[in-house]
Fold:
Amino acid sequence: MKALYLFGILAASLALTDGVMFCYYESWAAYAPYGGEFHTNDIDPHLCTHLFYAFAGINPETYEVKILDPYTDLCIEGGLCGFENFTALKQENPDLKTLLSIGGWTEGSETYSTMAGDKGYREAFVASSVSLIQQYGFDGLDLDWEYPTQRGGVPEDKENFVTLLNELKAGLQEDGLLLTIAVSAGKYTIDESYDIPGISAVVDFVNLMTYDFHGSWEPFTHANSPLFAHPDDADHGLEFLNVDFAVQYWIDGGCPPVKLVMGIPVYGRTYTLEDPSQTGFFAPTSLPGIPGVYTNESGLMGYHELCFSQILSDEWVIVHDETMNEPYAYILSQNNLWVSYDDPDSVRLKAAYARDQGLAGCMVWSMDTDDFAGACGRPYDIINSITEEFHLKK
Structure:
């Protein structure tokens, strides 16, 4: 199937000439060490069609929207004015849309579950969210609840999520504001968490988080965001953990392709090899890889960290496995570090896939881990490669 698809990319007509490029911005990138810090005023306003500011949260006492980092987000007390600078980017590009993303993994699920299950709490959340968006000039709201029914949620979340989205849409559409959601790409979470037809009928776009299929939480190496299954995945019960399966599952479940936006990671998942003689897929591991110098998170490296590290050291071994679409690399002199990631070539394959499936476009998490300074070549090589392949650029 994969070989036929890759041949099809070369032969396919370039019918789609439009689409969306969604880019998430991690506000905490402002705190990265020198060389990796990234502020709202560093954003190229012509790079993406829609920008997403991550994150706001929920006040667990009032269930109103909560500003999580006033210093980064606001101008008060010498703050960085993140919200205002972010939405002001539209002055340079009037076609740009900016959205405030609420939620994220760190926010958890329990507070969202409680809020969604109570009419009064929903009203407080909707009213405060719409007010905050209007105050700072955002063009819409992106809800990233990870995940309904999961992580302390309840079975009723599946139905309550649709109710919440309908009430949010009613509060937003009066001023023509957008409503998008970020959703899981895992089959079992999808089954438990989402009424796909119900939510698809309400929202403007569904942002499918087709990454983190594998990582250092597993005892073996694998691809972070495999476009298709590895030939040995079925033997390990992993045949559902790939981009193609997730996209088709959402479409078959009732999500119109024109509303589905396919996620592409701008980072790699890292591991520490147990046996340096085993360096391919399914090599045994027991620890995450050492932290990157900017992201400072074990088990993860931003693309900007990785590509520059590969320039600095000729000890990296970069492998393009013929059975997969994404590269992996390892450097034994750095604690047996192994990383699966996307490069400009692999994201072009993914963008072509999204285009050929008739999807709305692509989204990245996150723009601040792209090579924004051009240390490895042209600036924003990952995002530019995606947009070029999807034919967003005229």
User: Anything to note?
Assistant: The two ends are 32 Å apart (CA to CA). Residues 2-266+343-390 form a domain with the TIM Barrel fold (CATH 3.20.20.80).
